[in-house]
Design goal:
The complex is a heterodimer. Chain A is built from twelve helices and eleven strands. Chain A has a seven-stranded mixed sheet with strand order 6-7-8-3-9-10-11, sandwiched between helices. In chain A, helix 3 packs across helix 4, helix 3 runs parallel beside helix 5 and helix 4 crosses helix 5. In chain B, helix 4 crosses helix 5, helix 4 runs parallel beside helix 7 and helix 5 packs across helix 7. The longest helix of chain B has 18 residues. In chain B, 46% of the residues are buried. Chain B is α/β, with parallel strands linked by helices. The chains are: A alpha/beta, B alpha/beta. The interface between A and B is large, with 44 and 46 residues.
Chain lengths: 335, 326
């Protein structure tokens, strides 16, 4: 079955600084050569630290930004080949849920009107009564009561607001939902409610999700495949189980090792896979493999191997379980 | 039991609001011994940060009741002058957002030097040497150069290290850390956690960690206190509380977060509903509206504090039977 959405060689550069007098403008390589696909009814988890480009990938997939290079094909249609009108029509089928549901809602608009908006735009033929019924049905589906429909966003808790935003996204009857850190701002006891709701909706409606999160435990729970990004590039991409059970990229392994683990205290052992230093600036990324100055494999490598990492960027290679590392086979030595 | 460093006794913290007084902390009792690490866990609105900031009396407008005894002396009865002496020298605090805790107009070296000049009366070259030593101690590379940097020139992880260096400047006996790793990325969080663990080991400093992350508590703390809607609902050694919780809320928190070895296909266990409004608390137990095990009694009488043993206690009429698998 062809994927619902497929990106090939996506690259996005943003110019920085420069201006009138500074001719030599520099660029942030927000996303470099990213190729990803999402099958119908499945979830692709996209993980990485702040500034790694994961949200930009989401916006490129939805056609909200045009890539500098590469292309996105949604259900057979090349987004780059469409005019604004056709792109707008296609975007109905791709909706977004954000980290901060309050910022995504108009504070002066009753929630029923917010959920009705996509219906007004995409289904203008509906009568007011039909639209009202559809809104109440959607609110009910996400766990809100009909008597709450005329209230304002401020009268709801964070979790309830996220439900409202999800209802509004569903109103457009999308096939792809880009969920950008959808539970990160919520309390732990509320996160599970939203995660379960998203899972139920996926089953009911064959929805595809692009699920961006920094929380690896949540990603492991919801995603069918996971892509790990570092400094604008996908460094590892694989089905969820093998990626978590046996990560093949040292960065993925370090991210997993960074998750707090009560057992480690009991054993008194320090982390073996601790990345040193800070993420580098995407304006001046390191040469070769972007991870090489921080890589936990580095001390185990000989001079020639280290030199290769500093010189040559590894390609994302493999069948099914893709990894971009010259020395992925060495990871077992330090685990 | 050794002498307590910090003893909080029936503490109440109340804020005046346009809609009337708001009791953020209601009757909290805790003790922390020298060199121990205590995790204070709760969701937003649980009162954990209000409790932590009252120890140093940082809220000017809060009305505090009960007692906060530091080495036996009640801080709620201390004058402002002795509080100022205490802050930073014996009890230091690190906040979530390092950017707003640092002065953007001053070099970080000067900011680390401030407590040294103030409390330790150091000056001249002695200050510089001490600043550089502190920066090295918290793992800031190239301290002589970095001391000259302004906060915005440093990464989030380095700024958090600068704050920890400031906090350690006068050799405090207690470090209060309020969500110290929430604002930084995962790999940086791991570095900060390792740093805190090393400092605990090397200096024997006591730590009060405020967090919503039970995993972090498990990794850094000896003991834990769980807060819900202004009340402490369970306390005990970390292994016991996380391994066999007595309060249904603690159990719910543990079960609702997906585990790295959990069943991916299964639904997560939800805690239904929302945290109650502190101005409109339900009758009886504050958790009863969301508790699967709630009985008639839970809806009418609020459970009193029950001490299981010297270290363990809870506030529940029907504590969980942890003999079987959870």
């Amino acid at each position: 079955m062809p994927a619902l959405i497929e990106a090939t060689g996506l690259t996005k550069r943003f110019p920085v600084g420069g201006g009138l007098l500074l001719r030599a403008r520099r660029a942030v390589h927000a996303v470099s050569d990213v190729s990803l696909a999402i099958e119908r009814g499945t979830t692709l988890g996209l993980v990485g630290e702040s500034g790694c480009g994961k949200s930009t990938v989401g916006r490129l997939l939805l056609g909200l930004q045009r890539p500098t290079a590469g292309r996105v094909v949604f259900d057979g249609q090349d987004l780059g080949a469409l005019d604004e009108e056709a792109l707008r029509k296609l975007r109905r089928r791709m909706q977004m849920v954000f980290q901060d549901p309050y910022g995504a809602l108009n504070p002066r608009m009753p929630i029923a009107d917010a959920v009705a908006e996509p219906l007004v735009i995409h289904h203008p033929q509906l009568s007011a009564g039909e639209r009202r019924d559809r809104v109440l049905q959607l609110l009910g589906r996400v766990g809100l009561r009909a008597d709450q429909a005329q209230r304002l966003p401020a009268e709801f808790s964070g979790g309830q607001r996220q439900r409202i935003v999800i209802a509004r996204a569903l109103a457009a009857e999308p096939e792809l939902l880009f969920a950008d850190e959808p539970v990160s701002a919520l309390d732990v006891s509320i996160q599970a409610q939203i995660v379960n709701l998203l899972a139920d909706l996926q089953r009911e409606r064959q929805l595809s999700y692009l699920f961006v999160s920094h929380d690896l435990k949540v990603v492991r729970h919801v995603a069918h495949r996971v892509a790990v990004m570092y400094l604008g590039r996908v460094v590892e991409e694989a089905p969820t189980e093998p990626l978590f059970a046996r990560p093949r990229h040292p960065y993925t392994a370090s991210l997993l090792a960074a998750i707090p683990d009560p057992k480690r205290r009991a054993a008194g052992t320090p982390r073996r896979l601790l990345l040193v230093g800070d993420p580098p600036s995407p304006i001046a990324p390191p040469s070769g493999c972007a991870l090489h100055p921080r890589c936990p494999l580095r001390p185990t490598l000989g001079a020639a191997d280290q030199e290769r990492c500093a010189r040559e960027a590894p390609a994302l290679a493999g069948d099914g379980h893709r990894v971009a590392c010259h020395h992925a086979d060495r990871l077992d030595d330090i685990r | 039991m050794s002498a307590a460093l910090l003893e909080i006794d029936a503490l109440t913290v109340e804020f005046g609001t346009p809609a009337g007084p708001l009791r953020a902390v209601d009757g909290a009792t805790l003790r922390l011994e020298p060199g121990r690490a205590l995790g204070l866990v709760g969701e937003s609105g649980s009162g954990k940060s209000a409790l932590a900031t009252s120890i140093l009396r940082l809220h000017q407008h809060a009305r505090l009741g009960g007692a906060i005894r530091w080495k036996g002396e009640d801080l709620l009865r201390s004058d402002e002058k002795s509080m100022r002496k205490l802050r930073g020298s014996q009890i230091a605090m690190v906040f979530q957002d390092p950017m707003s805790s640092l002065n953007p107009a001053h070099r970080v070296g000067r900011q680390i030097a401030e407590p040294l000049r103030l409390h330790k009366r150091l000056s001249g070259a002695a200050v510089d040497a001490e600043v550089h030593a502190l920066m090295a101690k918290v793992g800031i590379p190239d301290p002589v150069e970095r001391a000259k940097a302004y906060p915005h020139q440093l990464s989030g992880g380095l700024r958090q290290r600068v704050l920890i260096a400031m906090a350690l400047a006068c050799g405090p006996e207690l470090l209060i850390a309020d969500e110290p790793t929430t604002a930084v990325d995962a790999t940086i969080q791991a570095q900060i956690v390792e740093l805190l663990r090393r400092l605990q080991r090397e200096t024997g400093i006591a730590v009060l960690l405020i967090t919503h992350d039970l995993g972090l508590v498990g990794e850094l703390c000896d003991d834990v206190a769980v807060m819900y809607a202004g009340r402490i609902v369970e306390t005990g050694p970390v292994a016991a509380v996380l391994g066999a919780p007595l309060h249904p809320y603690t159990a719910g928190l543990l079960a609702s977060a997906p585990a790295l070895d959990g069943d991916r296909g299964a639904r997560l266990r939800e805690i239904p509903g929302v945290v109650p409004d502190l101005r409109a608390l339900p009758p009886g137990c504050r958790f009863q509206t969301r508790c699967a095990a709630a009985q008639e009694r839970c809806r009418s009488d609020e459970p009193q504090w029950t001490a299981v043993d010297a270290a363990r206690g809870h506030r529940c009429h029907f504590p969980l039977d942890n003999k079987g698998p959870r």
